[in-house]
Amino acid sequence: MAEELAKTANNSTTEKTAPRRATDMPLLRIEGVTKRFGNFTAVNELSLDIRAGEFFALLGPSGCGKTTLLRMLAGFETPEEGRILLAGRDIAQVMPHERPVNMMFQNYALFPHLSVRDNIAFGLRRAGMARGEIAARVAEMVALVKLEGMEKRKPDQLSGGQRQRVALARSLARRPQMLLLDEPLAALDKKLRESTQAELMELQRRLGMTFIIVTHDQEEAMTMASRIGVMDAGRLAQVATPRDLYEAPASRWVAEFVGDVNLFEGQVISREQGRLKVTTREAGIITVAEPRQSVMKEIVTVAIRPEKIKLSRRGLASGADALQAINRFEGEVAEINYLGGLTAYRIRLDNGAVVRSVMANTARLDADGYGSSERVAVWFTPDDGVVLEQ
Amino acid sequence: MSTRRIFARPARYAAIAPYLWMALFFLVPFGFVLKISLSQTAIAQPPYTPVFDLGEGWAAFKAAFEQLSLENFRLLLSDNLYILSYLRSLVVAATSTLILLVIGYPIAYGMARLPQRWQGIAMTLVIVPFWTSFLIRIYAWINILQHDGLLNRILLALHLVPGPVVWLSTDTAMYIGIVYSYLPFMILPLYATLAKMDRTLLEAAEDLGASARKAFWLVTFPLSLPGVWAGVLLCFIPIVGEFVIPDLLAGSNSLMIGQTLWLEFFTNKDWPVASAVAIALLLLLVPPLVLYDRLQRRQVEGRR
């Protein structure tokens, strides 16, 4: 059933892209789109390509314009400038009810006066589908989201999780070329959210449909999306896979927004054998691997993720040895936060800076843990530092 | 547990208050009217018989009780004056309510769509006429609708009519008066339901392929039905018993039941028949009230 659905979804895509080969052109191309509300620019000259079959996440703090962008894709907002090409056709000015795109709303927006069946059938009826076909499609959708037996219930007779499924079934029923999801899991509790994430990913994979999800939850974006666009103040700060976003952030802002990070600002003093030496106020001289694109600026920021900062008791040496070692500093444990699977430490270095380090609690008994005020050595390899120019 | 008990007791007493009110100001007077409706006219003070007087002993009381009859109700059914009055009342009430709904719905819808800060102002504008006495406003309409009144002068100035139109003492004047007076009662419940409606539902409808007009009929209107019912009953029921507006603005060739009742009571001095008219009117209005109650209960249950 799902395979059949997937096939149809693909068919409709290829139909619409007939003049050009699907490989030539992304399913969705956003070109220099700008949207203003009065004096406030919600989306600022934003361009983005999304290929068919992608699970794309728009991630950003509230007010960054991600929801506005999604609403422009759905047709609820019209851009002042730019084009939105869906399978080659500019849909920027097309009314929402005439777009081959569907949206799953944050609060689900289920029609309270209609049963589960009628909610799912709503879009099919508008499309003028034959009665028998509607019944078959509704049954298929109900099975897809595992709501058999609930067809006659009204939305207020369903749990939060069930409502979420109805909303999903309703938005998928028309087999849109692209499904937009606005914070689809925000209203669910943590456990349910995790299982629903897995179900959504499985569904997307089986249907081969293009999903664009808006979320402020980076863990959710990391888990589900194949690519993430991080938005800040109406622009895309970076578009990358979850791994690249975390391990190779494009800017200081992205590094700080996605996950936890230690940042050291300093001046480049030497470039030797693919290594960069940076002298920082907080941590003295840091040696990092030179990034692929050569560093142009003199003042840079070195970003190191907390789990890449290791602690040890050994190597607490004095004098010459310590000075020779690369990226090795001494300090004392200022704060310990036990988080279950991990322990987060804050180490106050001898030259005043505070660095964060996260260690996995790999053994049940706390034999290796560091105590408060204990003197430790802090170190990291040159490859674990990322040089940021902005 | 203990806090619950502390608050439960006064709350329980407070719950009696509306019943006490109803008993004192509705049930007791209703009992009087019911009794009079079962009595006969008499040239006496009070103008009906029998009169219960507990001072004359149990036997006299029993004798008086046996004199009560349904004679007056039989009269209501036999004389088509009453039946026609009832029918006219129902027709006038139904027609006015329909006009009120057709005019009131767009106004309420427009109000609910206004920016938040304008909604309060619009609401005040709807309520402002209540600051003037109802009777004075109806007299103002007489002034507007009379032969050389404001309406005729405007129509003549615009050359829309060849000569002055007769408005007063017509059904049109009556409908104008009724619609004008009851409009707030239609708008307010409609506005209340429309204003609290979730606008993303309309976006969802459009997203699923419904045009704005389709979305209105498939989503907004069905969801506003509780407000529609509230407005309809809030207007229909009092209009059925309306007396002042038809008396002042309509002609005298056909009467609404309120006017008939007034005539029986004040002109004919026939208190028993007047009472019977009142009781019959009440019985006539019970079915729509029960219907409303059931609709509302279904609404509440549906929300659970």
Explain this structure to me?
The complex is a heterodimer of chains A (390) and B (304). Chain A has 390 residues and is of the alpha+beta class. Chain A has helices spanning 2-16, 66-74, 116-126, 131-144, 160-172, 190-207, 218-224, 242-247, 252-257, 320-324, and strands at 28-37, 40-50, 55-59, 81-86, 89-90, 101-104, 178-182, 210-215, 227-232, 235-240, 262-272, 275-280, 284-289, 299-304, 310-312, 328-338, 342-349, 354-360, 375-379, 386-388. Chain A has ten helices and 20 strands. In chain A, the strands form four sheets. In chain A, strands 6-7-8-3-9-10 form a six-stranded mixed sheet, sandwiched between helices. Chain A has a five-stranded antiparallel sheet with strand order 13-12-11-14-20, with no helix packed on it. Chain A has a five-stranded antiparallel sheet with strand order 15-19-16-17-18, with no helix packed on it. Chain A is elongated and about 75 Å long. Mean pLDDT of chain A is 87; it is low at 1-22 and 319-323. Chain B is an all-alpha fold and 304 residues long. Chain B contains 13 helices and two strands; from the N terminus they run αββαααααααααααα. At the A-B interface, strand 6 and helix 3 of A face helix 9 and helix 10 of B.
What keywords describe this structure?
heterodimer; A: alpha+beta; five-stranded antiparallel sheet; 10 helices; 27% helix; 33% strand; B: 304 residues
Quick structural overview:
The complex is a heterodimer of chains A (390) and B (304). With 390 residues, chain A is of the alpha+beta class.
